Amino acid sequence: MSLLRSLALVIGLLVVALGAGSVPAAAQNDTESLRPLINALADGKYKETEKQIGDLAATGNPVVAPALEALSDGDLYFRKSDKQVFITSKSGEGYALTDPLTLESAGEAGKREVSKIKVNNSLRRVIRSALGSLTLMAADPKVRKEAAEAVFKAKDPDAIEGLDTAIAKETNDEVRLVMEQARAAAVLNSDRSDGEKLEAVEVLSSMGNRDALSLLIGVRDSSTGDLQAAAATAVKRIEKTLALWDNAQNIWYGLSLGSVLLLAAIGLAITFGVMGVINMAHGEMVMIGAYVTFMVQEVIRNSAPGLFDYSLLIALPLAFLVSGAIGVGIERGIIRWLYGRPLETLLATWGLSLILQQAVRSLFGPTNREVGNPDWMSGAFEIGQMTVTYNRMWIIFFALAVFAGLMLVLKKTPFGLYTRAVTQNRRMAASMGIRTPWIDALTFGLGSGIAGIAGVALSQIDNVSPNLGQGYIIDSFMVVVFGGVGNLWGTLVGAMTLGVVNKFLEPYAGAVLGKIFVLVFIILFIQKRPRGLFALKGRAVEA
Amino acid sequence: MMTSFLFRALDARAGLFLIILLALTVAIPASNLLLPETSPLHVPTYAVTLMGKYLTYALLALSVDLVWGYCGILSLGHGAFFALGGYAMGMYLMRQIGSRGVYGDPLLPDFMVFLNWKELPWYWYGFDMFPFAAIMVLFVPGLLAFVFGWFAFRSRVTGVYLSIITQALTYALLLAFFRNDMGFGGNNGLTDFKDILGFDVQADSTRAGLFIASGLALALCFLLCRALTRSKLGKVLVAVRDAESRTRFLGYRVEHYKLFVWTISAMMAGIAGALYVPQVGIINPGEFSPANSIEVVIWVAVGGRGTLIGPVIGAVLVNFAKTWFTAALPDIWLFALGGLFLGVTLFLPKGIVGTVSQGWSALRQRSASAAYEAGSDEPPGSPDAPADVSHKRASSDASPQPAE
Predict the structure, then answer these.
(1) Nearest to A355 among B301, B331, B335 (CB)
(2) Are A89 and A96 in contact (CB under 8 A)?
(3) pLDDT > 90: what percent of chain A?
(4) In this complex, which of B161, B298, B334 lies closest to A530 when CB atoms are compared?
(5) Tens digit of pLDDT for each residue in A22-71?
(6) Among residues 332-351 of chain A, which lie with CB inside 8 Å of chain B?
(7) Per DSSP, which regions of A99-200 are E strands?
């Protein structure tokens, strides 16, 4: 059930992701009409060259960009015979010629047949700003936006005019905003009037990110009067919003860590909660799930590379089945002989975890195995001032989906009913005709299977090695014990709380110390509430 | 009074064990130092050090058995007390290096010079004196155990919960000691020791001396445990193990008994760690790893918990096997260790010593009843044995049996 739900979810989102991929190609037209302008560069002194560069830039056609770059680098030559201009590169004794517009090869020329178009530093500056404004007018909005961002970083006062024309022409609101911000940054860096600078401060202050902040701090520290006051208020405002975003980012990271903990712990919560069995080999079930993913990807790489994006979807049911089957095997073979002796169960399953680890090490080698991210899991996007990576986001959704599915199984199916009955009162359940040994085996299989699908998810963010499981086992126990045994809501709240608390401690105490604090906190918490946050209520006196 | 307390603990079996232990403690170093190397009875120095290490492990196993076998507290964090004792000794040994370190600083150990520290942290003061370090070997693990136990037992954390938080405790310490700014050498730990009490740690005679010290410490702690478990206190401990609530209802302050034996056990583990470090020549945070602590538990389980001889035998046997396997068949060792965990819990819940002594008393009982049936006057062994329904626990042996 949980599987179906998560499958449907993942497929739905996959379709959305595939639809948004294509980017319109930049149109190229009437290139040839530019050729006279380019060839005009062949004759002329610096002054004329400067004018010609201006003419080229005024066309607003990005096709001329390579020629201008070559000119700036001193690679633009003209052929003496017909005054044709070429981009050149050294080849043996002579030069290899490239057409500056089509960028196709145009044969070779001897050393004496061509002559370099001269360029100096002031011309280079002209070329640079011309290039900047050229890309600012490119057909592709993405290129325009990147160009504007580049200007923002360079804060080049020379780019202001180019930006002005670009802003006037711009039709895309988003790109215009970036351009205005770039203009503001350039204005603040120029020697323009305070009035214009005040406007620029206003623009930057509404931008509200770290780049704007550092610019404004620079203004605040170097200016006087109104401008300084305006910059100071803007800095304060931005710092306030940034602090809020920082908290949001921390919560996000915390939830992400919490969902990883939840995935690792949720299977444990079932086996521990229902049967009181401490399964120290639980981490190895996670590890096996990760290795199933690895195997699936290997098979897909070798036989059907086109299916790679679906590899995780294929791995999910397989991991569930493999880990679940191993879980049932463990229960039937080992654990059922040890009921009523929890401490010995702990030791036996620990021994089992050693064996499983070494078995995987012998089969797959001790090194990390590479599990690839499908396209829809890689990359990131931004919400305001915080970055969200797709793999973390999917894992949060996935963890919640698994949790919801498990809740459904436990609350709405006959199997869940039997399981809860056995949890609450084993002997009474047996008297009512429930085959408790079967329930035990299936529940253990379910918990292990869920550990397996957790392994599929964790293979995306962690190294797949025989030690994968060990890294999670103590944390998972902490989550289960903190949340309260036998209560899945407790596990959810426990995992998310520990995740968020961990991430909030990290900036102050460092990752390791933060973790130590959390451990000490749990040790103290257990003293206060020995049965966890959400303890099962009952009349049973502890044995 | 103390001596009578200890000597009362001696019976035939314990006496025999102690005599063998002490004989080995004398014989092995003697053969190493006195016999020529060509003699077939000569024990090479590396073997002396190895066996010395086993003895410290045996002491650690004994301390775990005291709380697990007799009080039902399964500690998955005794490695922490062992390592803390080891660090206390390691700090003394570091201070003994003096200006002979790589950087030649008269006061600061090498790693502090490397980290560009200017002065010695306050908690390193005093460790240049052996008596202070020796007290710390007992005090630091004891204090940690006391504080931890005081909280844990008072709020009645028992069973697997306690096991898990002891594991969390040692895990937290592992993470802490890995940090460089803790001032304990971080990842590399403390090593490169030169001498102990003025003797070169590498010398044969020092190694023999450390072996003897380990043997004596084990013998003394064995005697102490024996006396503790046979006293009235020991009976209460067993009662706590088998029926904690009932013992509490009878009016015993269960948490006090637990706390006492827990702290004693931690101190014993500290001694073991302190003797381990100079023999091995290094102490690093790896000793805190939870896997180590669990391994100690399996030594106890193999030998037989609830018996004091068992853990000693278990520790030596398992570690001997480990040394042999990791040299001859390194890939197999984890399979063997894992199999040991499974085999012992499934098929040998009483461990070697427990099973043997159970078999022995069963044999004696059968011959006694056979003699009775044959017309002899002797009464049958134990009246309750045939009536006992829980066949797993059926035993007329006077020595306490393990239970959860």
Answers:
(1) B335
(2) yes
(3) 18
(4) B161
(5) 333 333 455 677 777 777 777 767 777 777 777 777 776 767 777 777 88
(6) 334, 337-338, 340-348, 350-351
(7) 105-109, 114-116
pLDDT band at A535 (very low <50, low <70, confident <90, very high): low
Domain shared by A48 and A101, yes or no: yes
B103 at interface of A, judged by CB pairs closer than 8 A:
no
**Do B365 and B381 touch, CB atoms closer than 8 A?**
yes
Tell me, yes or no, whether B275 and B225 share the same domain: yes
CB-based contact (8 Å) between A515 and chain B?
yes
**Number of domains making up chain B:** 2
A148 and A92, same domain (yes or no): no
Which of residues 353 through 372 in chain A touch B, CB cutoff 8 A? 353-355, 357-359, 361-362
Note whether A243 contacts B: Cβ–Cβ < 8 A: no
Q: Which domain holds residue B394?
A: 350-404
Q: Inform me whether the C-beta atom of residue B249 falls under 8 Å from chain A C-beta atoms.
A: no
Q: Is A105 helix (H, G, I), strand (E, B) or coil?
A: strand
- Do A436 and A499 fall into the same domain? yes
Q: Do B165 and A352 touch (CB under 8 A)?
A: no
CATH number, domain with residue A272: 1.10.3470
In the predicted structure, residue A197 carries a pLDDT above the cut 70? yes
**Same domain membership, residue A307 and residue A374:** yes
Domain count, chain A: 3
Q: At A539, is the pLDDT very low, low, confident or very high (cuts 50, 70, 90)?
A: low
For residue A29, the tally of other CB atoms under 10 A from its CB is 9
Residues A168 and A195 in one domain: yes
Per the structure, the complete domain to which residue A479 belongs is given by: 245-528
CB contact, 8 Å: B331 with chain A? Answer: yes
User: Domain check: are B48 and B157 in the same one?
Assistant: yes
Give the CA radius of gyration of chain A. 33
- The number of CA neighbours under 13 Å toward the Cβ of B119 is 4
DSSP secondary structure letter of residue A25: P
Q: Can you name the residues that pair with B191 across neighbouring β-strands? A: B282
Instruction: For A357, name the nearest residue in chain B, comparing CA atoms only.
Output: B334
Domain termination residue (choose one: A122, A151, A184): A122
Nearest-CB residue to A347 (from B164, B245, B297)? B297
Nearest to A478 among B156, B168, B404 (CB): B168
| Residue A8 placed within a domain | no
Q: Considering B312, B336, B360, which residue would you say is the last residue of a domain?
A: B336
User: CB of A542 within 8 Å of any CB in chain B?
Assistant: yes
Rg of chain B on CA atoms, in Å? 23
My answer on whether B126 and B165 are in the same domain is: yes
Token output for A526: 């257990």
- How far apart are the C-alpha atoms of A84 and A101, rounded to whole Å? 12
pLDDT range class, residue B377, cuts 50, 70, 90:
low
Rounded (to 5) percent helix, strand, coil in chain A: 70, 5, 20
The whole-number average pLDDT for the span B328-342 is 88
